[in-house]
Design brief:
3 domains; four-stranded antiparallel beta sheet; single chain; globular; alpha+beta; disordered N terminus; six-stranded antiparallel beta sheet; PH-domain like; Alpha-Beta Plaits; 32% helix
Length: 390
């Protein structure tokens, strides 16, 4: 689909200013409107120089969104084919470039690839993520998934046989990354590592990658969360750590302390959702607004954390175990204040990876009674809302 068909005129070249290039990037996005049950398509234009965004309905050719400032939760790097963009409470999927100039500039730089981790390598998840992050690729999506024994795959998928094989190995962790020439580079990286021949599946062609991403899409009807929602605590790897490619290192740190990650999933929050999640701190922390800004500033990774059986005391009740996992993980997380953590508790997670009070690497549940509730917020409430919204 080219810009001539959409606008009735040729795509404009990016204009140049004294300070550099005043870019306007154009994308085709779609949104599933749940009320009439219709998938609508729009042209989204991102004016990088002014950080404005606007949208036009492709079918009616009418303005859907007048030029407005991009929310603080988004920036230019979040826009690429295959991305899910939460804009003004709408979950938009970027499905194509809307003009040649945007395609030429971004297609190779933001190429997306996917890997699938089987249960036999689950305890190596942090190492696998680090292997790819350390090669310069940025995490886009990461989620643990179960398809409840349903290995039925339509033959419309070119990789149908491989997908059936994967489903028989569930539960799985599906993760995607983006970066220049990511499909070939990540495939070769894995093949030359000690994971070659193991149950870590990477894909060598764009067609295979597209098949796997589409099949394991967040709203796949047979998909179920792996969250237990009992005897657990919540941990959130914050957006600044995702951008800094620290997800794998943080996962390794958590597991090395005797914890199990029983569910994992990436999310993007708008400010209202971030404020709702952190509202308990509204009257407590002077940095509440900065905390909300950080949590909605990009992709985050939510974790359901449980204690390994070997770490639980004998004869403990469910209530005892709930209190123990929340309080134990909070101690390992360290103080909110990173400077205090580095000075007094240098072996804590926040001391290792935090930058400041708001960008302190992770959020963790503070009160035992909130452990299950915070996990439910991500793995039940937000997940259900995302599926309902398409």
């Amino acid at each position: 689909m080219d810009a001539h068909w959409i606008y009735g005129h040729a795509a404009k070249r990016p204009s140049h200013t004294m300070e550099g290039v005043e870019q306007t990037l154009s994308f085709i996005v779609e949104w599933f409107d749940p009320h009439p049950q219709i998938c609508k398509k729009y042209v989204l234009k991102l004016h990088c120089h002014t950080n404005d965004v606007e949208m036009r309905d492709i079918q009616t050719k009418r303005t859907f969104l007048s030029k407005t400032k991009l929310p603080s939760s988004l920036d230019k790097s979040d826009f690429f084919v295959g991305a899910s963009i939460l804009l003004l409470s709408r979950d938009l999927k970027v499905i194509d470039y809307a003009d040649v100039a945007t395609r030429t500039q971004l297609e190779n730089v933001n190429e997306r690839t996917v890997c699938v981790v089987s249960p036999t390598l689950y305890d190596q998840l942090g190492n696998v993520v680090s292997l790819i992050e350390n090669a310069g690729f940025t995490l886009v999506d990461l989620h643990s998934t179960s398809h409840a024994g349903d290995d039925s795959v339509t033959d419309a998928f070119a990789t149908a046989e491989l997908l059936r094989k994967l489903l028989r190995l569930e539960p799985l962790v599906v993760m995607s990354f983006r970066g220049a020439n990511s499909i070939a580079t990540v495939y070769n990286l894995v093949q030359s590592s000690h994971y070659a021949g193991c149950d870590l599946f990477c894909f060598s062609t764009p067609e295979e990658v597209e098949d796997v991403i589409n099949f394991f899409a967040m709203d796949h009807p047979s998909r179920q969360t792996t969250a237990t929602l009992e005897e657990c605590t919540c941990c959130v790897i914050k957006p600044h750590a995702v951008r800094s490619r620290l997800v794998g290192a943080i996962l390794n740190d958590i597991v090395s302390r005797g914890f199990a990650v029983s569910a994992i999933e990436t999310f993007r929050l708008e400010r209202a959702a971030a404020a709702k999640f952190l509202e308990i701190y509204a009257g407590i922390s002077q940095d509440y607004n900065n905390m909300c800004s950080e949590l909605c500033s990009g992709t985050l990774v939510a974790l359901e954390i449980r204690l390994l059986e070997s770490k639980l005391g004998d004869g403990t009740t469910m209530i005892d175990r709930q209190e123990e996992v929340v309080e134990t993980f909070r101690v390992h997380a360290g103080p909110w204040d990173v400077e205090v953590a580095k000075e007094l508790y240098p072996d804590t997670i926040r001391a290792h990876f935090g930058k400041d009070h708001a960008r302190n690497a992770i959020h963790c549940t503070d009160l035992p009674k909130d452990g299950v509730m915070e996990c439910e917020y991500f793995f039940k409430i937000l997940t259900n809302l995302r599926v309902a919204g398409g």
